[in-house]
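[retry 2/3] Enzyme of poly-gamma-glutamate biosynthesis (Capsule formation), putative: previous attempt timed out, resubmitting with same input.
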Amino acid sequence: MEKRANYIRRKRYASYRTKMHLFFICGLATIILAIIIVSEHLVPRLNQASESMRSDNSVRIMAHGDLLYHLPILRGAEQPDGSYDFSENFTYVKPWIEQADFAIADFEGTISPDVELAGYPLFNAPAIVADNIHDAGYDLVDLAHNHILDSHLSGLISTVNTFRDAGVDTVGVYAEGNRATAPLYIREVNGIRIAVLAYAYGFNGMEALLSQEEYDAYLSDFDKGKMRAEIERAEKEADITIVMPQTGVEYQLEPTEEQTSLYHQMIDWGADIVLGGHPHVVEPAEIIEKDGQRKLIIYSMGNFLSNQRIESMDDTPNSQWTERGVLMDIRIQKENGQTSIQTAQAHPTWVNRISQGTYSLDGYERFSYQTYVLEDWVAGGRYYGQLDLDTQARVDTAYQEMKDFVNLVW
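[retry 2/3] Enzyme of poly-gamma-glutamate biosynthesis (Capsule formation), putative: success.
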């Protein structure tokens, strides 16, 4: 009897111990699952906005300044078989651009099969550049700039059609020659209607090759009557209005009085955001209060990709600023029928030029060009420590000077 009692006690203990183990394992699994669920809701993934920031009534817009395909950039992108590939220009910015719900670039040049490839002063890039821009995540390119007639009127039309074929919208010119009757460019994103208008101060004298009828039909210039009418119309038809004017003094870090006056007028006419270009250096940002809301101006976004830099422009004032730009990062919110800017950031950027160790057929050293969003490359950034000491010092200086100078605190 005693042996049987001991056997029963041991069996009950073993059963109890098994149940306790199962209870412990189930409890631990429940805790781990809870942590995972909470983390998914509270901690955004790397390079991904939180769900609350990407709701159906919110839009994240990214925009930047000039993509200038100088001849050294063309040489660096040429492949052994004679084709071109510009995708490496966007290697380190593509993860940023892909986060945007709506991404805008300023393409300063033309794409024409009827004209030789060239950089300054008559820019003409191969068609593949439009595909590379699309693949980097862009939705829209601004073509209102002083180089849009570098390949003549046929080049303007070809540029628009090439981007359209690549899946990228264009603004700032009218390839059908119908400015007087064309609808405004308005794109609906997450239920928010975004109007984008773009204007150029001039066309480097190439407009002399056009008739007055062609000029009026194809180009978007600084005719104040037309600009005002279009901006006022956009305010009525869209939830948010972005205007991209191209003017100012090249390589000057402060806006002119004419810039300041015109950009303020654009806000008065109905613009919510003014993103300036042309000086090839960054100029400051300004926040304006209107009707109880904050409106945003950045007088120049600078260069986003070019061969302009200290090494090639050491006799130009502010040459170190030509290799810098900003990636504007703006969140728009629509609540109860009211649309407003919720946040705005200006991420400093810098173009790195890296020798390929080879030479082109015409005897020039070949370089790779890559644009960096600098917070990725300074202390705490995901790529920090990958640059040589001299380049790191240049990046650190650019980042700090840009942050202090633009001084955009929303």
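[retry 2/3] Enzyme of poly-gamma-glutamate biosynthesis (Capsule formation), putative: The longest helix spans residues 2-42.
[retry 2/3] clearing retry counter.
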